[in-house]
Amino acid sequence: MNQFEKLLRENILNLVPYSSARTEYSGWDARYFDANENPYNSPYNRYPDPLQVKLKEKLSAIKGVKPEQIFTGNGSDEVIDLLIRAFCVPGKDNIIMPEPSYGMYEVCARVNDINIKKALLKSDFNLDTQVILDLVNEKTKLIFICSPNNPTGNSYAESDILMILQNFHGIVILDEAYIDFAPHNGFMKYLLEFPNLVILQTFSKAWGMAGIRLGFAFGDNRLINILNRIKYPYNVSILTQNAALDMLERKNEMEMWIRSIINQRRFLEENLGQFSFVQKVYPSDANFLLMKVDDPVELYNYLESSKLIIRNRSKMPLCNGCLRVTVGSEIENKILIDKMLTYQNEINTSGI
Are residues 100 and 152 in contact, defined by beta-carbon separation less than 8 angstroms? Predict the structure, then answer.
């Protein structure tokens, strides 16, 4: 029994996975009488490749990992849910997550009746590794870490993440949804060194394809095989696979978008910081900025009235008074700054 099987729920360990028609025959040059498909309306009448072989082969060349180290999901949220369902026994096991962080870790845990232990970040939004490790007990199966973090935008120190990997015997899930906007390459280089490391990435941010719902997990092939065993048979549609394959051919275009977003992030940071009602704009390695303002509700409502929608994060721990602003196009960002200038002028005129 390998290290992952020891962590698995017993029912998952003993599960006989569903065998779909396209797993029993994986070729694409036959006449199909096996899956009760409609013979008309090609190619959408056929079930998609359940293991997304072509997509993984192309992605493996870009990411520098083997195809068998890649799991493809219906967004990263599917992967989060599958990991919790595979390894955590409802009502008994627990996960650990820093706070504040991406809310779906908690949602998926609660849906699956898994206890959540939260480790408050330090006041500078960095990880408190000792607090995290002190929360670990014999029922802790997973630790979720988002870096660059949502909603704070900062990347955690490599040494802090390594300390957790070295001292925790469960699975560490490192969510790198925003890694393409960061000035470092993330943790892909550590996959072979740490079999208990799972890295999540997505097509929703830098690749500009949030609408197709495509996320990835990179990890030890034994763990990836577990996810493939328990996922829905055809979890990634043919439309999504084809759109992703096309986008991977346009990698240069994606890299141009990243450069533009980073430049516009700098523009927003400089301009947002000049407003009298903005107390602080936090540094960001992502495609958004967190800013602390005098009255987050009033500013949010003011912008919303002009159909400029930002995110109110002021009720999250350590984020009192904070709003999160996504980096838009050059035109969009100028519209936002102009409207906030109007807001400031109205404040000054009213004498508030």
Answer: yes
pLDDT in tens, 60-90: 999 999 999 999 999 999 999 999 999 999 9
Residue 257, domain extent? 252-350
Verify that 311 and 331 share a domain, yes or no.
yes
Q: Which amino acid is located at 209 in the chain?
A: M
Average pLDDT, the chain: 96
Can you say whether the dihedral through the CA atoms of 161, 176, 290, 288 is positive or negative? positive
Domain count, the chain: 2
**Dihedral pair phi/psi, residue 272, rounded to 5°:** -65, -35
Phi/psi region, residue 199 (left: phi>0; alpha: psi -120 to 50; beta: rest), is beta
pLDDT digit string (tens) for 141-150?
999 999 999 9
Reported as type and span, the H/E element at residue 13 is helix 10-13
- Cβ–Cβ < 8 Å for 51, 228: yes
H or E element at residue 173:
strand 171-175
Query: Cα(140)–Cα(133) distance, rounded to whole angstroms?
Result: 10
Could you tell me which residues come within 8 angstroms of residue 140 by beta carbon, excluding any fewer than 6 positions away?
Answer: 93, 94, 95, 96, 117, 168, 170
The pairing of beta strand 94-99 with beta strand 140-146: parallel
**Which of 31-35, 223-227, 334-338 has the lowest average pLDDT?**
31-35
Q: Which helix (H) or strand (E) holds 23?
A: helix 21-24
Q: What is the mean pLDDT of residues 189-218?
A: 98
Based on the fold, state whether residues 231 and 193 are members of the same structural domain.
Answer: yes
Whether 75 and 88 share a structural domain: yes
Q: What percent of the chain has pLDDT over 90?
A: 89
Residue 97 forms beta bridges with which residues? 118
pLDDT at residue number 351: 59
Judgement on whether residues 287 and 186 belong to the same structural domain of the protein: no
Written as six digits, the tokens of 149 are 């973090």
Instruction: Work out the pLDDT band at 267, boundaries 50, 70, 90.
Output: very high
> Is it true that the peptide bond before 296 is cis, omega within 30 degrees of 0?
no
Q: Are 293 and 243 contained in the same domain?
A: no
Half-sphere exposure of 227 (CA within 13 A, CB side): 27
| CB of 194 closer than 8 Å to CB of 165 | yes
